[in-house]
Amino acid sequence: MSLDVSPELLDAAERGEVSDQQFADCVRDSLPYAWRMVSDLSTRLHVDGAGATGFVDNTTPPPDEQARGQLLRALASDAIRGCLERHFGVRLAFQNCHRVAVFPSGTAEDSDVYSTFTSVRSQLLNQSPLLRDC
Q1: Model confidence over 95-112: pLDDT tens digits?
Q2: What's a Pfam family in this record (predicted)?
Q3: What is the DSSP string of 28-81?
Q4: Residue 132 and residue 123: Cα distance in Å, rounded?
């Protein structure tokens, strides 16, 4: 299960009354490692800027399998990923079990930097035997 959904939130969803903030709260509480990573990267992007690379990323593997699972669940779900992007005002890109990057929202899709990061070439160059079973 990806999220711990309270009975109240489930009832609201059945009625069609779930706000982005309610969903964000559920994601934050259910996937705290993934939430913190995206929050920290987004803060760095908004405070320090994208720097020479044009993005801010994480290259440190998660500390354990539970954290890795949270990150994978958060970024594999369009709804969760979209919620994170809207909440933090960023565009997310994901290369493997820990390499997550945040790009400035609204400009990322059209940028050469984003296209390069999400390209087949970059995906292949970012591989390592250590990450085979991540």
Answers
A1: 776 788 898 887 656 677
A2: KH_NucS_shadow
A3: HHH-HHHHHHHHHHHHHHHHH--GGGTSEEE-SPPSSHHHHHHHHHHHH-HHHH
A4: 13
Tokens of 97: 């079990």
Residue 98 phi/psi, 5° resolution? -150, -15
Per-residue pLDDT tens digits for 42-63: 999 999 887 778 889 998 889 9
SS3 85: helix
- Chain segment 5-53, per-residue pLDDT in tens: 999 999 999 998 899 999 999 999 999 999 999 999 999 999 988 777 8
Pair type for strands 90-94 and 56-58: unpaired
The rounded distance, in Å, linking the Cα atoms of 2 and 79 is 11
User: Domains of the chain: which residue ranges?
Assistant: 7-131
Q: Which residues, other chains included, contact 124 with Cβ-Cβ below 8 Å and sequence gap of 6+?
A: none
Sheet of 100-104: strands edge to edge? 56-58, 100-104, 90-94
